[in-house]
Amino acid sequence: MDEKDLVKAAKKGDDQALAELFQGSYPFLLKYILKLTFDLENAEDLAQETYSKAIENLSRFKGASKFSTWLISIATRLFLDQKRKQKREFTWLKQEKTVRKLKWETQNNNQAWDDVMEALGHLPDELRVPIILKHYYGFSYDEIAKIVKVPEGTVKSRVHKGIKTVRKELNPVDEEPSNISKPLRQG
Predict the structure, then answer these.
(1) What's 172's DSSP letter?
(2) pLDDT tens across 170-180, in order?
(3) Is 127 in contact with 174 (CB distance < 8 Å)?
(4) Pairwise CA distance, residues 50 & 70, whole Å
(5) Nearest to 87 by CA among 49, 29, 142
(6) Model confidence pTM above 0.70
(7) Residues 129 and 80: beta-carbon distance below 8 Å
């Protein structure tokens, strides 16, 4: 049977036809995903997930393209979804690190976390809101931009300016930022 006949049979529930389609396309699909991921284990997992999605959505395959092309489109979407998820996780971890660092800095300078809250309270809303959304609730810059209805670059600028202002308020210029820079006394 040719590919179109195999697809028709698979749509009607012929497991043998579906197996032939998958066996015929597996090497091509795996090589493609391997070029995307550079990781054999991940490529195999994505190939498996691609076949799972293909089985779920086989009735939607119209045959306008080759079956392998349809599989490639599914695999590509799954790969891009995976990368977006990894990016969100990385961004979240980075945000958590920033918050921990800010807490550590305040504690290291003998300031209570309440001081940070008070400093945030002195900021204008346009600076405070993005900082809170970013560093306390983990929203991405893009999400914050949509929430406050300003461009993403403006959000980044406001977060940066707000944090800089909070740090200045917590560490006035006329005071030493910490005892770390003082030499140890020999006694």
Answers:
(1) -
(2) 777 644 444 33
(3) no
(4) 10
(5) 142
(6) no
(7) no
